[in-house]
Amino acid sequence: MAHEDHKDIVKEIKGTMPDADTLFELADFFKVFGDSTRIRIMCALFEKELSVCCIADIVGMEQSTVSHQLRVLRQENLVKVRREGKQSYYSLEDEHIQKIFEMGLEHIME
Amino acid sequence: MAHEDHKDIVKEIKGTMPDADTLFELADFFKVFGDSTRIRIMCALFEKELSVCCIADIVGMEQSTVSHQLRVLRQENLVKVRREGKQSYYSLEDEHIQKIFEMGLEHIME
DNA sequence: TGAACATATGAACAATTATTCATATGTTAT
DNA sequence: ATAACATATGAATAATTGTTCATATGTTCA
What pTM was computed for the model? Predict the structure, then answer.
């Protein structure tokens, strides 16, 4: 134990924090934003819905890679799919995404 | 090439996206939020500045682990340090953090 | 100066994850 | 039904990353 009021502070702060499960979920959610391929995919989808092959060309990666990452985005409810003929069209599912992007961009621009 | 307008769409979207470097930086920034230990550290710091040993006790991890993660947070300008005697006191450096947390929490609560 | 304590750092290990290749599934048109 | 195309998925690999132990650095006080 370090300083005089250590114990009190630990107890005080612990009381104010969301439960561990919630913070675990939160970390998992942000993990999705922590990859540049996924960031670029989401960024592309800001404009409009896109087919998988368009996304692959835009971000310059294999169709397979993009499919895998789209699955990750789907699992976290960040994008939704729509089938039209042979193509799958993906679009953003959540308006929080843009705000989170803005916050992030503001931060790194400082 | 997939559908009729594939090429046009790819060109159009590419034109609207921030440059690759920026998006890479953005991903690196969000990567910091993608770990539950760091999330819990930031969450604890919402209340007030804390010493390393308090933080370690609050999140229930080794002092060493916490020090390593605080360095990561420092490198991304998310926290700042203040020495007072033997202790180092850390605090949040950026008001964006709280907003990003809020957005994330709102998302996972749906 | 040296002992005691708080924090930081380096090296090693375990675990997670992004990417690719190969292939399966799903869809359309002949 | 079969060919042609778009997308999804499984397995393998390479790379990144979080944690811990051991130890170094920094600070206070006797």
Answer: 0.93
